[in-house]
Amino acid sequence: MTARVALNQHPDPGGLRRHRLRLLKEGALGTAPLMLGLIPWGIVAGAAMISSGMTPAQAAAMSLLIYAGSVQLAVLPLLVAKAPLWVMLVTALVVNLRYVIYSATLAPHFSHLPRAWRALLSYLSTDGIFAVYLARYERASGDPERHWFFLGGAMALWVGWQTCSWIGIFGGTLIPKAWSLEFAATLGLSALVVMLMFDRAVLVGALAAGAVALFAPKLPLNLGLLAATLVGVVAGMTVARILPAKAQR
Amino acid sequence: MPAEPLTVWLLIVGGGAVVYLTRAFFILPGRSLQLSPDTQRLLRYAPAAALMAIITPDLGTVQGELALNVENLRLLAGLAGFAIAVWTRSVLFTILGGMLVLSALRFLAGAL
Question: What is the pTM of this model?
Fold first, then answer.
């Protein structure tokens, strides 16, 4: 319960405040290498929302409320194709399922914090801060102030993402069509998917899903993406079952 | 034709709720739970499969028609992008490298 000790009850309030500020700063600096990747990715997501017919207010709200580039880029083509709302929401869920693992991994790290803190850290959780935080705090024990490091890094990424997203929203139309921003979005998704390839089974599953999406005839209601995903998951699970755990790497 | 404003707003709010649910799933209730290896696999395979299913039609078709040939420059540049992603593990280098390859291919195709 040490983290709940108010500053004025702490034996050394000045020292604790300095410690927290240092963690905030170290977290922010820890995400610096990711910031460069965020710039094109955020601008592309911002511009893609506008070119999908969203108003700047809608795009800014989406960037704030969803705050997940992969989800935004996944649902936009469905929005343009006038897919039913539930298909878009299920797609958002499927693309973001990886965050459930992050949340299971992070939960013991933050279980000593008040609910408001846990609500805030949940909102700020992304692929980037997850990797940076776990690289420093592998185990959920030790410094009870470690969430300040997470907060510092996550806030830096949030500010960076929102800024780049706004640049894309308000400046995206200035980018010449010949630059093929949609292609940049596809490249960004490709980089993300490569980073999710942690074993051979997930690779097989992804390739199966990609093949189904490419070759299968069009399904009604834009269900093709979800059908391809289902095939991919089944293929991946099957490979994981067949291959012994050691051979999967 | 842009989508209905109501649909867009429902997507923004509903999507926000869905995404928040996945992020907060274990953190907010504060429960610690070991996910079984099979559950972990499912949760990782689904996003990778979904993202790949978005990527392949984008690279492998031209105006809705299957185009798996060297004249499809986006396919070639996309494959180069994958190679760069595997090599560098960097979103920045993948986007910049892939765009550079696409520009170079377009220049060459124009010069031929």
Answer: 0.86
